[in-house]
């Protein structure tokens, strides 16, 4: 049998095995779950995820493929604003099904996309999930985006993990839609604030804006927690649930 035929059979066998695994797998990971302490090969060597995070917050974000247009713009943006994640005590790590060698080669293209960063090293590691094991475990595969062998690629997933190693937020984008890293920073600001104080952030909230007192707090409790006080917006129902304060 020709080598090419053998490679084709191996690809088909892997595809069948992957389809069976995906069918039997749980639907990813849910909010509040402890994030798996996986081991993986990355552009900085082999890591154990919880050790990599340490006491920091973490953002794991996947992309479909190296050397593709939208993915290049995304990781270039992530690299450009990486100092903003460091400022928030957040460790970043990317993932796709490509090899470490491809990640390292592509990283030069990514950094060249930002003239001010050209020639600089990628400021965060990239996981090589070439066997798709982690992608299946975390529910990150996109059934509508396939490689030349008909194998599913990783979608544009975002996982935000807290210092307690639990999942705090997840967002899933299709391959055709690039992410907004300013929005990701905004939600991290919200997650970190609401982890410390009994407040919630309203629509379009950003740092410095008023926040809302959570409904489970009585007015008496709110007065004790927020010495500056709070204001209540009147609504037709007469219910006093729209309570604003400064964090």
Automatic annotation (TrEMBL):
<dbReference type="InterPro" id="IPR036249">
    <property type="entry name" value="Thioredoxin-like_sf"/>
</dbReference>
<dbReference type="Pfam" id="PF10417">
    <property type="entry name" value="1-cysPrx_C"/>
</dbReference>
<dbReference type="GO" id="GO:0045454">
    <property type="term" value="P:cell redox homeostasis"/>
</dbReference>
<keyword id="KW-0049">Antioxidant</keyword>
<dbReference type="GO" id="GO:0047184">
    <property type="term" value="F:1-acylglycerophosphocholine O-acyltransferase activity"/>
</dbReference>
<comment type="function">
    <text>Thiol-specific peroxidase that catalyzes the reduction of hydrogen peroxide and organic hydroperoxides to water and alcohols, respectively.</text>
</comment>
<feature type="active site" description="Cysteine sulfenic acid (-SOH) intermediate; for peroxidase activity">
    <location>
        <position position="71"/>
    </location>
</feature>
<dbReference type="InterPro" id="IPR000866">
    <property type="entry name" value="AhpC/TSA"/>
</dbReference>
<keyword id="KW-0511">Multifunctional enzyme</keyword>
<keyword id="KW-0676">Redox-active center</keyword>
<comment type="similarity">
    <text>Belongs to the peroxiredoxin family. Prx6 subfamily.</text>
</comment>
<dbReference type="InterPro" id="IPR024706">
    <property type="entry name" value="Peroxiredoxin_AhpC-typ"/>
</dbReference>
<dbReference type="InterPro" id="IPR019479">
    <property type="entry name" value="Peroxiredoxin_C"/>
</dbReference>
<keyword id="KW-0575">Peroxidase</keyword>
<dbReference type="GO" id="GO:0051920">
    <property type="term" value="F:peroxiredoxin activity"/>
</dbReference>
<keyword id="KW-0560">Oxidoreductase</keyword>
<dbReference type="GO" id="GO:0004623">
    <property type="term" value="F:phospholipase A2 activity"/>
</dbReference>
<feature type="domain" description="Thioredoxin">
    <location>
        <begin position="29"/>
        <end position="193"/>
    </location>
</feature>
<protein>
    <recommendedName>
        <fullName>Peroxiredoxin-6</fullName>
        <ecNumber>1.11.1.27</ecNumber>
        <ecNumber>2.3.1.23</ecNumber>
        <ecNumber>3.1.1.4</ecNumber>
    </recommendedName>
</protein>
<dbReference type="InterPro" id="IPR013766">
    <property type="entry name" value="Thioredoxin_domain"/>
</dbReference>
<dbReference type="InterPro" id="IPR045020">
    <property type="entry name" value="PRX_1cys"/>
</dbReference>
<dbReference type="Pfam" id="PF00578">
    <property type="entry name" value="AhpC-TSA"/>
</dbReference>
<dbReference type="GO" id="GO:0005829">
    <property type="term" value="C:cytosol"/>
</dbReference>
<dbReference type="GO" id="GO:0005739">
    <property type="term" value="C:mitochondrion"/>
</dbReference>
């Amino acid at each position: 049998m020709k080598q090419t035929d053998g490679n084709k059979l191996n690809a088909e066998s892997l595809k069948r095995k992957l389809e069976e695994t995906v069918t039997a797998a749980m639907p990813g990971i849910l909010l509040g779950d402890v994030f798996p302490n996986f081991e993986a090969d990355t552009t900085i060597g082999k890591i154990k995820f919880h050790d990599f995070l340490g006491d920091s917050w973490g953002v794991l974000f996947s992309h479909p493929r190296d050397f593709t247009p939208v993915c290049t713009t995304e990781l270039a943006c992530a690299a450009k604003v990486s100092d903003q994640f460091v400022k928030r005590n957040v460790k970043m790590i990317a993932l796709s099904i490509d090899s470490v060698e491809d990640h390292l080669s592509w990283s030069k293209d990514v950094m060249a996309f930002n003239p001010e960063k050209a020639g600089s090293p990628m400021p965060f590691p990239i996981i090589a999930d070439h066997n798709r094991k982690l992608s299946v475990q975390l529910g990150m595969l996109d059934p509508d985006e396939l490689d030349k062998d008909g194998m599913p690629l990783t979608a544009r997933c975002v996982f935000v993990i807290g210092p307690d190693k639990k999942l705090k937020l997840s967002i899933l984008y299709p391959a055709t839609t690039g992410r907004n890293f300013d929005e990701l920073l905004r939600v991290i600001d919200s997650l970190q604030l609401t982890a410390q104080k009994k407040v919630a952030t309203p629509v379009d909230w950003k740092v410095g804006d008023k926040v809302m007192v959570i409904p489970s707090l009585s007015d008496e409790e709110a007065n004790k927690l927020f010495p500056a006080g709070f204001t209540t917006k009147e609504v037709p129902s007469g219910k006093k649930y729209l309570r604003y304060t400064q964090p």
